[in-house]
Amino acid sequence: MKQIFYILFSVLQFCSFAQKKVGGIEVPTVFKTESTVLVLNGVGVREKYYKDLYVLALYVKTRSDSAHQIMFANEPMAFKMHIVSSLISGDRMEEVTDEGFKRATENNIEPIREKIDQFKSVFKDNVKKGDVYEFVYLPLKGTHIYKNNVLSSIIPGLDFKKALFGIWLFKRPKDTDLHDKLLGK
Fold this sequence. Notes:
Blueprint: H1 2-16, E1 19-22, E2 25-28, E3 30-32, E4 37-48, E5 51-60, H2 67-72, E6 77-83, H3 90-104, H4 113-120, E7 132-138, E8 142-147, E9 150-155, H5 158-169, H6 176-182
Antiparallel strand pairs: 1-2, 3-4, 4-5, 5-6, 6-7, 7-8, 8-9
Helix pairs in contact: 3-5
């Protein structure tokens, strides 16, 4: 009986550490893809004018504090974005996405322009507080875009994945605090 109690206690204790609360959102410490379990590399809140806009979590195979290594890695990884503000709209997401891709590619967006447009189309449906987006990169399959657990689009190519992940990880991020937190700093 004591063994059963000890095992149950250990499992419950492990489960209590299986999530991290950030910006009012419970963020899992693991993320499962089709064939890989990813670990939480870092999580932070995108703020503007002291208002929380979204919580963003980065999941990778092996934790790293190197933005370059993560951006250029051709291995499964994911971002999970929780919209926490009603200030975010589809139009605004499209606008800031364009800005992010320009920064991440150093204004060289033409080679992936069609892929960027495909990505932005995911935000054509109204974006609202409580929506959850997942950007899951799988080598040879591309970046899978989910909105509220429904697959919205698959965008092929490592080139697109590098640019997408570069929005938050590139050397000149819009939000340096979020950048550092995603890298576990």
